[in-house]
């Protein structure tokens, strides 16, 4: 195919042009292979495959050595510049005329790393092109799949543990979403490690809101593929649960609901105690959106079913939070939702509900006794200090 394309006016690179990619750097003179290439700028209008052509061979995509020879995938010093060769590369990788055996000689590990470096672009159009290109490369070149996954892992590690910023995480996660969807069952240990070591830690950065939708999809795909991973995912969410970022907490609660929808009873039982301790803290949050989002969990029939099966464990954990909301939450919507949840538990198991009420009353009574004892102790200390008067005072 390359020979066919070169007949259309492309110079074959000489062996003297060799560099670590296989061909040399661009020459400073005006002559060279780049001047012989006619670029159809209208083809850059959209990141889709080119329209079909008929007739001469020059209608085929440019040869892959253009990007290898001239390093056109690099923007140089302009980080936000849009390389005009990226749309041409897209045309090449999506073309049905592309011979993967020939292209494999040029699309190697170094090429993939250069491509991945470009994902940290602030131009969303460029990231869309790159997403489609990398996805097609992943699909066509099976030999590169493990390396591509590993390279993406490394980008995630740098984000989580070093930089905490990257513009292309959402696009990379979109690619991984379709990759995860195609994982064969039973799932390989390598893929489970990818979930634990790469995806779950992505909940740590502050900029999670930029890519949370794609991350949540990837996480849910794992649980839907293998329900036994639900416990791992839930505990991972609890590990990175935000302490003082309410908007992030709302995102976590939304993702938690999606994970619980795919969770079966056995996995739910393994993590329900730490899970509902956290939910109880969310229920009493002074930020009404957090409390409201936590209460919305009871609108999900599957989650209510899991809770009903394990109500003897769940209700004692959250009962105090419900009572606190009933008697003291400032937001009227949260108060109304709490009343509904409380009523649901009462109808679910009246005997258990009354037992929780009794235990809660006893706990409040003990707390009052402790508070009274503390006040008496302080009063005695004050009396002793008053009796001694100023005996222990040092005068100058």
Detailed description of the structure:
This protein has helices at 2-6, 65-70, 86-94, 100-103, 109-117, 124-140, 145-163, 169-181, 189-199, 208-225, 230-239, 246-261, 265-283, 288-295, 301-309, 311-328, 332-348, 350-388. By secondary structure, the protein is mainly alpha-helical. It has a domain at 271-376. The longest helix is centred in the last third of the chain and has 39 residues, at 350-388. The chain starts with a helix and ends in an 8-residue tail after the last helix. Mean pLDDT is 82; it is low at 1-71 and 76-80. InterPro entries: ARM-like, ARM-type_fold, PP2A_B56. Residues 1-56 are annotated as: Disordered. Residues 1-13 have a biased composition (Basic residues).
* Low-confidence residue ranges: 1-71, 76-80
> With helices defined by DSSP (H or I, 4 residues minimum), what is the helix count?
18
What is the residue-averaged pLDDT? 82
Report the C-alpha radius of gyration, rounded.
31 Å
Number of extended strands: 0
**Helix and strand pattern:** HHHHHHHHHHHHHHHHHH
What percentage of residues falls in helices of 4 or more residues? Answer: 55-70%
Largest β-sheet summary: none
The secondary-structure class comes to mainly alpha
How much strand?
under 5%
Shape: elongated
Distance between the termini: 102 Å
Organism: Populus alba
GO molecular function: protein phosphatase regulator activity
Protein name: Serine/threonine protein phosphatase 2A 57 kDa regulatory subunit B' beta isoform-like
GO cellular component, one term: protein phosphatase type 2A complex
């Amino acid at each position: 195919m390359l020979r066919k394309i070169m007949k259309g006016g492309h110079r074959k690179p000489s062996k003297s042009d060799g560099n670590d990619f296989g061909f040399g750097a661009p020459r400073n003179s005006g002559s060279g292979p780049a001047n012989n290439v006619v670029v159809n700028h209208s083809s850059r209008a959209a990141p889709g495959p080119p329209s079909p052509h008929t007739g001469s061979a020059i209608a085929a995509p440019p040869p892959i050595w253009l990007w290898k020879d001239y390093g056109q995938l690099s923007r140089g010093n302009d980080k936000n510049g849009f390389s005009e060769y990226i749309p041409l590369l897209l045309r090449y990788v999506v073309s049905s005329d592309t011979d993967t055996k020939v292209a494999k000689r040029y699309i190697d590990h170094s090429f993939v790393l250069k491509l991945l470096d470009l994902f940290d672009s602030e131009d969303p159009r460029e990231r869309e092109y790159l997403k489609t290109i990398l996805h097609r490369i992943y699909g066509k070149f099976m030999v590169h799949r493990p390396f591509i996954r590993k390279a993406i892992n490394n980008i995630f590690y740098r984000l989580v543990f070093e930089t905490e910023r990257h513009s292309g995480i959402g696009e990379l996660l979109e690619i991984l979403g379709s990759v995860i969807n195609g994982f064969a069952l039973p799932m390989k240990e390598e893929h489970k490690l990818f979930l634990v070591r790469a995806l779950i830690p992505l909940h740590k950065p502050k900029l999670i809101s930029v890519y949370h939708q794609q991350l949540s999809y990837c996480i849910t795909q794992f649980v839907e593929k293998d329900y036994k991973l639900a416990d791992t995912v839930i505990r991972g969410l609890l590990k990175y649960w935000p302490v003082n970022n309410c908007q992030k907490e709302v995102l976590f609660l939304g993702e938690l609901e999606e994970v619980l929808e795919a969770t079966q009873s056995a996995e739910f039982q393994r993590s329900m105690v730490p899970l509902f301790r956290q939910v109880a803290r969310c229920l009493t949050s002074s930020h009404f959106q957090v409390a409201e989002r936590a209460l919305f969990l009871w609108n999900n029939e599957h989650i209510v079913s899991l809770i009903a099966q394990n109500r003897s464990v769940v209700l004692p954990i959250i009962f105090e939070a419900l009572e606190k909301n009933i008697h003291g939450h400032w937001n009227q919507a949260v108060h109304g939702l709490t009343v509904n949840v409380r009523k649901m538990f009462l109808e679910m198991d009246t005997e258990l509900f009354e037992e929780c009420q009794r235990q809660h009353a006893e706990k409040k009574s003990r707390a009052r006794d402790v508070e009274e004892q503390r006040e008496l102790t302080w009063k005695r200390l004050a009396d002793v200090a008053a009796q001694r008067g100023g005996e222990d005072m040092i005068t100058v």
